[in-house]
Amino acid sequence: TNGIMSIMFAHQSTEAWTTLCNSILNADMNICSSWANDTEMTGALKEGKAFLSSSVTVTAKPVEKYKFGSYRQIKEKIFEQVKNQVKSLFEAGFRGPDLLTACFGKAVREFGLYKTVEKADGSEVTVAELLELTRDAAFNAIISDIDTDSYTRFYIGWLHMFGFSEAEHDDVRRITQIGLNVDVDQLLKKKILINNGNKENLADMRTRCYEFKNLGQNQDSAMIDRVQKAMQLFTGTNRAQLLGFIKKFAIEPEGIFWRVINSLVETLPSDTIDYKAATGLANVKENLIKEARAIKEEVIETRDLHFGESE
């Protein structure tokens, strides 16, 4: 009864985490701490595949549990704890599924203080629901500091959580409801998401620019549209066109455009053309802005001169 158990776990499936957490909680134990470490090799057989690059060590011990807890109160605590956890993990370099799974331990620890957690209608909250709540809290924490339109916030938030891997349609639908004014149909129409049966995956720069030749060039375009168009132009050979685009939409060095570029550099998989384009733009930002500002605007005036005519 005084022992401590440590489990090293490297799995991104919420089903697997549900099994692990249920096993701990059903043994009258609770998670008392969890932390993530970079432990997994990234080459050889894992090349080009989706995998975790870290593992999470979970420590658990026997505890005396309270009889029941309020879901509303626990939800507030989990959102607060996960927000702090996401911030510290992001600063430590964790991204994508690694960042998400590292948050699970904190959430389950709060949940495991009680024998049961009940909603207002008296129904009992399951571990699976708790982990979905944790994922929602992590997504909300990621997008909360991104001051731009909902489409761009969704893109960056989804990239943080899932990268370009596929996700279940229900997961996509639920996440669009977390502080965002978008729905799945709009995301599919704009080719931000690509549908594959009952799953969706995030579209990359080339896919979206191929579908929409004038991507990002309307006055009401989402910022992710403009950024991806600039990334495409950067990979091309028409520098004048790139400079014209920068002059029109990205002339302010501290503007939203460049903050989104920085977010993509921090989040995109390093082996993608998108990452290379975003990194390239970020590296030559000052030169591009300087050259764009030097472009002379040509103003053509047409005048009708009527000599000798009276008004």
Q: Stretches where pLDDT falls below 50 for ≥5 residues?
A: 44-51, 298-311
Number of strands: 8
Residue-averaged pLDDT, rounded? Answer: 81
Structural class estimated from helices and strands? alpha+beta
Helix count, DSSP H or I runs of 4 or more residues: 13
Portion in beta strands: 5-15%
Overall shape: it is elongated
Order of helices and strands: EHEEEHHEHHEHHEEHHHHHH
* Order of strands in the sheet with most strands: 1-3-2
* Terminus-to-terminus distance: 104 Å
Rg on CA atoms, Å: 25 Å
Describe the sheet with the most strands: 3 strands, antiparallel
Quaternary form? single chain
Give the % helix.
Answer: 40-55%
Note down, in words, how this protein is organized.
51% of the residues lie in helices and 14% in strands. The strands form three sheets. Strands 1-3-2 form a three-stranded antiparallel beta sheet, with helices on one face. A three-stranded antiparallel beta sheet has the order 6-8-7. By secondary structure, it is an alpha+beta fold. Strand 7 and strand 8 form a beta hairpin. The protein is elongated and about 75 Å long. Helix 1 crosses helix 4 and helix 9 packs across helix 11.
